[in-house]
Design a protein that fits this description.
It contains 16 helices and ten strands. By secondary structure, the protein is α/β, with parallel strands linked by helices. The chain binds flavin mononucleotide (FMN).
């Protein structure tokens, strides 16, 4: 891979640059978690307890990051999670994100709540695109949307089930960043404080596309974000259950993946209901605070359903070492949401590509340092566990 470095050497650099560029309410919407942000912090902190052990003298001069996922080759073992807001970070952000993924040769997930229509993203970007579905309480409308997703040509459908009850994000209320947008003096001051973003993103949006809206919604529910009649609760479905998932399985002929799984029993149930995969995820710490980090929940889930269905993990992956740890603990594939969003905020497609390029460089480097040549070689052997000998040595010394 090659590309302008944008002076970003890691994902945290992109995050800091995004913070400088975006209005505070928008940056916090992307960056923050919920309530006391215990989940958010723990998602990243949990990686620190996992340590590698290396194999040396393994001639690692040739290495491949190619990874098989749902019958296709991804150029590395990480793809892009669904996020509904790239269009608010840079003009046409969702297309930029998908183009970056296509260029990097990795899958990208188009969100139900995107501000660019699925048709436009498919036509403009191409590549291995997956679609993420939120099931509404009106099942007929949801199934109509599924039919549209099928007719557009998507082959993989991700159903997100961990936010049927919204996370408590108090900062959004403080910032007036809500649906519909509340143009409070505070929000307006925040927008005006970032003229670069205002002109290159919001103004372009209004001139070329009009009021930002959820472009994948059917006319029955499509509503401008500014509309007073818009009721967020009408998009939620607290009664969602396994019968709904089975209904979807009957309707969707392609790969079907359940996103937001943290319990091995739910992963097993998903497999019993015909899922092709699960995404071990806590929605990036945005839904339930104090939930287990996906990297912590992963080993039990992989032990239960790994080899039977595909196990994917997201939430908190910021480094190549994190990705390799995820694979070593039993994941088949990893996804990330915020890293490419930060990149999109900084420089649209080029910024999202830079985030993917950073992951590629870092994963390749750590594989070499571990003495590995292919992604298939990543396994539990890479991880250090205190041995019985080390424990008895410590006990004897005490
Ligand atoms: C701004 C933002 C918007 C998101 N929107 C959606 C969404 O519409 N659908 C969904 O399934 N997940 C959504 N997510 C969750 C991501 O798909 C993913 O699970 C999460 O970002 C992973 O954590 P990470 O950001 O630490 O990588 C969103 C996340 C963020 C940060």
């Amino acid at each position: 891979m090659s590309g302008g470095k944008l002076n970003a050497y890691n994902i945290e650099d992109l995050r800091r640059m995004a913070k400088r560029r975006l209005p505070r309410g928008i940056f916090e919407f992307v960056d923050r978690g919920c309530e006391d942000e215990v989940s958010l912090r723990n998602n990243c902190a949990a990686f620190e307890d996992i340590k590698f052990r290396t194999h040396v003298l393994a001639d690692v001069s040739t290495r491949s990051l190619d990874t098989q996922i749902f019958g296709k080759t991804s150029k590395m073992p990480i793809g892009i999670s669904p996020t509904g807001t790239a269009g608010l970070l840079s003009f046409g952000g969702e297309v930029g994100l998908a183009k970056a993924a296509a260029r990097a040769g990795v899958p990208c997930t188009v969100a139900t709540n995107g501000m660019t229509s699925m048709e436009e993203i498919v036509n403009e970007a191409g590549g291995d695109l997956w679609f993420q579905l939120y099931m509404w309480s009106d099942k007929d409308l949801s199934l109509k949307l599924v039919d549209r997703v099928k007719s557009v040509g998507f082959e993989t459908l991700i159903v997100t089930v961990d936010s049927t009850i919204s996370g408590n994000r108090e900062y959004n209320h403080r910032n007036g960043f809500e649906v519909p947008l509340q143009y409070t003096p505070r929000l307006i001051a925040q927008l005006l404080a970032k003229p670069g973003w205002l002109v290159s993103c919001l103004l372009q949006q209004f001139i070329k596309r009009g009021v930002p809206k959820f472009e994948n919604y059917p006319p029955e529910v499509m509503d401008g974000l500014l509309s007073k009649s818009f009721k967020r609760s009408s998009l939620k479905n607290e009664s969602l259950d396994w019968d709904d998932f089975r209904l979807l399985r009957d309707r969707w002929p392609g790969k079907l993946v359940l996103k937001g799984v943290l319990h091995p029993d739910d992963a097993a149930m998903a497999a019993d209901c015909g899922a092709d995969g699960v995404i071990v995820s806590n929605h990036g710490g945005r839904s339930l605070d104090a939930s287990v980090a996906p990297i912590q929940a992963l080993p039990d889930i992989a032990a239960r359903v790994g080899g039977r269905i595909t196990v994917i993990v997201d939430s908190g992956f910021r480094r190549g070492t994190d990705v390799v740890k995820g694979l070593a603990l039993g994941a088949d594939f990893v996804m990330a949401g915020r890293p490419t969003l930060y990149g999109t905020a900084v420089a649209g497609e080029a910024g999202a590509y830079r985030a993917l390029e950073i992951f590629h460089e870092e994963i390749g480097r750590v594989m070499g340092q571990l003495g590995l040549h292919t992604v298939d070689e990543i396994g539990a052997d890479c991880l250090w566990q205190p041995s019985a000998a080390a424990t008895s040595f410590r006990t004897a010394a005490e």
